[in-house]
Amino acid sequence: MTAPVLRVDLSTPVPPYEQLREQLAGLISTGALAGGTRLPPVRQLAADLGLAGGTIARAYRELEQAGMIRGDGRRGTFVCAVSDADRDEQARYQALSRAADELAATARRLGFADDAVLAALRTALARATSRDSASV
Amino acid sequence: MRAALAVVYVGVPLLLVGASIWWATRRGRQASGLSSSADGVVQRARRHRGVGLGLGAMAGVVSIWFTHGELAPALVAIGYLFGVLGEVLAVPVPSGTLRTATLETREAWRYLPRWAVWVAVAMAVISLVAPVLFAALPRVSYGPWSPDGVDVLPGGTLSWPSVGTSVPLAAIAVFGVVAAGVVARRVTLLPPVSSDPVMDEQIRRRIGRAGAGAVLGIELLAVAASAIAASGGLAVPQPVGGADYLASRILIWTGLFLAASAVAGWCALGSRRLARVPTTSA
């Protein structure tokens, strides 16, 4: 099995540590990185990506605070086992995140500004709420 | 005499290891299939290993002129090891806006032949113990003896290698182990040297093998020098004979065998071609 690949795009406004955190969180929540998997050391990842060690360390720290990975001293950093409930929750969030990505891409393609997109989203959310209350 | 020593102690390793560098970095028909990054690996290897070997040879010649020359072959290997270290330190850091990294932990063990590591560590231990043994062992004495049954020559007391000989060899052995650790760590922390992960792994492994070869050379050459120097502590005249004389001969031949093995192992480990394109299924 080939190891997953991390990609960092320095041309986007998203900070590199956030890109790394997001990708690692996705890989862990989808099970691509199983519980107990050892992550590369900070220095190795920093060398591979040509980033500062602090950038990788920050991504790891935030994932550790979220309970997704744990540091084990000199032995390294390991992926925490994810429970079924957590996995379902993370999968639902991933689906939402994908839908949001599609919405953002459509809005950009059609040339809408952020305010217009957020207004459309709020309207859609309000419509959904009213539909839900009507059905109850 | 010094020139002869320089030819044997420095010239032979220089020639053989230089040939192994040429072999490892030569351009073959497959070279056209190399990416520019992999081509850079080959050029860096040729340049740094060659310069390191040359500087080591110069240090070896200087040591022959100013000392007894026991350190000379190991100094050549140290120069080469510095060359390998320079080679891995010269790999450019990733540039560009899009960067990628494989989520795989690289272990130093993957890039070093284990047998070479264990042999090198064992030899380093022997080199470390040697000065203590030479200081603790009693000196060997022999009585008056006759080379031809007519003349009688006085007896004497032999001495083990001095601290000035054995301690530098032990220090070189320790240095070799420490430098091996640095090279192994640098190989794991090397930025990707090829966009092809298979080739990247292969290049790392070959650089690791070259470093391991140099360390094996340093350790074996240090023990070889200690063994040959120690033979003087048992070199009673042949007519006196006995176990001491036999042990002295065994030490000399063991030292020569270890020195030959050192250069052979060093060349063999560093001669794998860096430029070979791996055969991957499409």
What's the arrangement of secondary structure elements?
The complex is a heterodimer of chains A (about 140) and B (about 280).
Chain A: E1 5-9, H1 16-29, E2 38-39, H2 42-49, H3 53-65, E3 69-71, E4 77-79, H4 84-110, H5 114-135
Antiparallel strand pairs in A: 2-4, 3-4
Helix pairs in contact in A: 1-3, 2-3
Chain B: H1 2-25, H2 36-66, H3 72-89, E1 98-102, H4 114-136, E2 141-142, E3 156-157, H5 163-188, H6 197-231, H7 242-270
Antiparallel strand pairs in B: 2-3
Helix pairs in contact in B: 1-2, 1-3, 1-7, 2-3, 3-5, 3-6, 4-5, 4-6, 5-6, 6-7
Quick structural gist:
Chain A is 62% helix and 10% strand. Chain A is mainly α and 136 residues long.
- Return the CATH topology of the largest domain in chain A: Arc Repressor Mutant, subunit A
Query: Mind describing the biggest β-sheet of chain A?
Result: 3 strands, antiparallel
Mean pLDDT of chain B: 87
Which runs of chain A of at least 5 residues are low in confidence (pLDDT < 50)?
none
Order of helices and strands of chain A: EHEHHEEHH
Give a written overview of the molecule:
The complex is a heterodimer of chains A (136) and B (282). With 136 residues, chain A is mostly helical. Chain A contains 5 helices and 4 strands; from the N terminus they run E-H-E-H-H-E-E-H-H. Chain A has helices spanning 16-29, 42-49, 53-65, 84-110, 114-135, and strands spanning 5-9, 38-39, 69-71, 77-79. In chain A, helix 1 (16-29) crosses helix 3 (53-65) and helix 2 crosses helix 3. The model of chain A has no long low-confidence stretch (mean pLDDT 87). With 282 residues, chain B is mainly alpha-helical. In chain B, 66% of the residues lie in helices and 3% in strands. Chain B has 7 helices and 3 strands. Chain B has helices at residues 2-25, 36-66, 72-89, 114-136, 163-188, 197-231, 242-270; strands spanning 98-102, 141-142, 156-157. The termini of chain B are far apart. The chains are: A mainly alpha (136), B mainly alpha (282). The A-B interface holds A 2-11, 27, 33, 38-41, 43-45, 47-51, 76 and B 93-95, 97-106, 188-192, 197.
